[in-house]
Design a protein that fits this description.
There is one protein chain. The chain is an alpha/beta fold. It has eleven helices and 17 strands. Helices cover about 30% and strands about 20% of the residues. A hairpin with a 5-residue loop joins strand 4 and strand 5. Helix 4 crosses helix 5 and helix 4 crosses helix 6. It is globular and about 125 Å long. The protein starts with a helix and ends with a strand.
């Protein structure tokens, strides 16, 4: 082999090595070199296709899991009363039908599965069968399996703390009644824990003047708050065959099972003897002895205090009361003479200083009668063209403020669901606690109103009302119609979205 031949063979060998290694060289004009280049291109194309198949394999997306108790601190009562709580597992993004496991650590330190379920459309699994009848710390944890294109999330833990009602309740702000019962103090502490946890209770008003139907708005639900009217309760005691014992017993049973009771007082007009909706009057005569209105009003209030004291003593039906080994002593939130900034009631739009003096006299009369199971509240109506600033009517010594706000649903009103909170800040700036003491639609004929707008609005405005109370269905006036949770279109969906009837209002 000549030197030139050897050099040519070496060149071809080098070219072949370069082509095989994937390098593209400008080929000589030889047809053999073209053939080698095509083969190398085919091999590179095949490798590229293989890489695409590998990179095209779907990767599971990340998800998050939070596990918390709603609420995380509860009071244990010696009489067996409960404050419900439960474990909420929240998967994000919210995807339905993801398998979640919830476990509780037993006394021996062993984790035991207490719930296996799939997430709802909100990405939630809720375990509500938490035993809160005895003192002690409890530990829970949850995890979610890989599914629906998402990766698994390992154990996340949460802790339940209990407090005794015997000296273990410490409200953030003490009650204005320095002689308040232990039940009242624990009620305030419970509300403060809701506020700290960003929880808003779902409330439902009932018509307690009814006999066997008073609890109709509660059927199918267990609201965190139950509202009633002292005037209606007095009516149940004033009929020919009174049934007030049965109705008080029913309210006590709900409170024993964990509901908070909130009373309003639509006081009879002491000037004319008419209803609370009678024309407005000056309130000064209610502070001056020797006139008929004075005598009527304070005698009426004395009867209402007798009713409130029955809750303090846990006295419902005599037979049921006698059979209890311990008192079902119950505190209530009371908002007397509400919406004073509006012209809806006979006490409305009075001189603010006079109204506050009347309110203080209500408190003094309760103290004189040793009625100390009251968390005192003051509620105003939202700002409208017919109301004045509700902040002007907030008494100096109250435990809680409230705003009553309804969404007009008449034929000429905006059909969109809306929660008007004008006036909320004016009240909230003067009280340690705040609630939406009445809310919902006004004048709806078909119940097409979704209370989810309540939660959505307070979250957006970064507010933390302790509860939102819907009224019961009513009739006989222009704004009457479906109002209760089970009657408005979005009511049950809203209720189910809030475990233990406690909605998270954190953003």
């Amino acid at each position: 082999m000549t030197a030139s031949t050897r050099r040519s063979a070496a060149a071809w060998a080098a070219l072949l090595a370069l082509v095989v290694s994937g390098l593209v060289l400008a080929p000589p004009s030889s047809g053999s070199v073209d053939t080698l280049r095509v083969a190398a291109a085919d091999r590179a194309s095949s490798a590229e296709t293989h890489d695409k198949r590998r990179s095209g394999k779907k990767r599971k997306k990340k998800s998050r899991l939070s596990v918390r108790l709603t609420p995380a601190v509860v009071t244990v009562y010696g009489n067996g009363a409960t404050e419900p709580t439960g474990v909420l597992a929240q998967v994000s993004p919210a995807v339905s039908r993801r398998p979640v496991t919830i476990q509780r650590k037993d006394d021996a330190g062993v984790w035991r599965t207490v719930e296996k379920a799939r997430t709802n459309r909100n990405g939630q699994v809720f375990f509500g069968a938490v035993d809160v009848t005895s003192l002690g710390t409890q530990y829970f944890r949850g995890k979610v399996k890989a599914s629906r294109g998402y990766r698994k999330v390992g154990w996340r833990t949460t802790t339940l703390y209990t407090r005794s009602n015997d000296g273990g309740c410490e409200p953030t702000t003490p009650l204005v009644d320095q002689q308040a019962t232990g039940e009242a103090v624990c009620l305030a502490a419970r509300l403060d824990r809701w506020a700290n946890a960003g929880l808003m209770g779902i409330g439902q008003q009932v018509n307690i003047s009814s006999f066997e139907q008073w609890d109709a708005p509660l059927r199918g639900i267990n609201p965190a708050i139950i509202g009633f009217d002292l005037q209606e309760l007095d009516q149940a005691a004033s009929v020919e065959h009174p049934y007030v014992d049965e109705n008080i017993e029913g309210l006590l049973q709900h409170a024993h099972n964990g509901a908070i009771l909130v009373a309003v007082w639509h006081a009879t007009d002491p000037f004319s003897g008419g209803t609370s909706h009678s024309p407005r009057h000056r309130l000064e005569p209610l502070l001056q002895e020797g006139n008929e209105a004075y005598e009527r009003f304070w005698a009426d209030w004395d009867r209402k205090l007798d009713l409130i004291k029955r809750f303090q003593e846990g006295a419902g039906e005599p037979d049921a009361t006698d059979q209890r080994s311990q008192c079902w002593c119950t505190a209530i939130v009371l908002r007397p003479l509400h919406e004073a900034n509006g012209g809806f009631f006979w006490w409305g739009k009075a001189k603010p200083s006079t109204y506050k003096k009347v309110y203080a006299r209500l408190q003094q009369a309760a103290a004189a009668k040793d009625v100390n199971n009251i968390v005192w509240a003051s509620a105003g109506n939202r700002n409208t063209s017919t109301t004045t600033n509700p902040g002007k009517y907030v008494p100096p010594r109250v435990d809680l403020g409230g705003l009553d706000t309804y969404d007009p649903e008449g034929p000429n009103d905006d059909p969109r669901d809306y929660l008007n909170l004008e006036g909320y800040d004016a009240i909230a700036s003067k009280v340690p606690r705040m609630a939406l003491t009445e809310s919902g639609p006004h004048g709806s004929k078909d119940g097409s109103w979704n209370p989810a707008v309540i939660t959505r609005t307070v979250r957006k405005q970064r507010l933390r009302p302790l509860w939102s109370m819907l009224w019961y269905d009513d009739s006989g006036y222009a704004e009457a119609g479906p109002k209760q949770i089970t009657s408005v279109d979005g009511g049950m969906s809203w209720y189910r979205s809030c475990p233990n009837a406690l909605c998270s209002v954190r953003r």
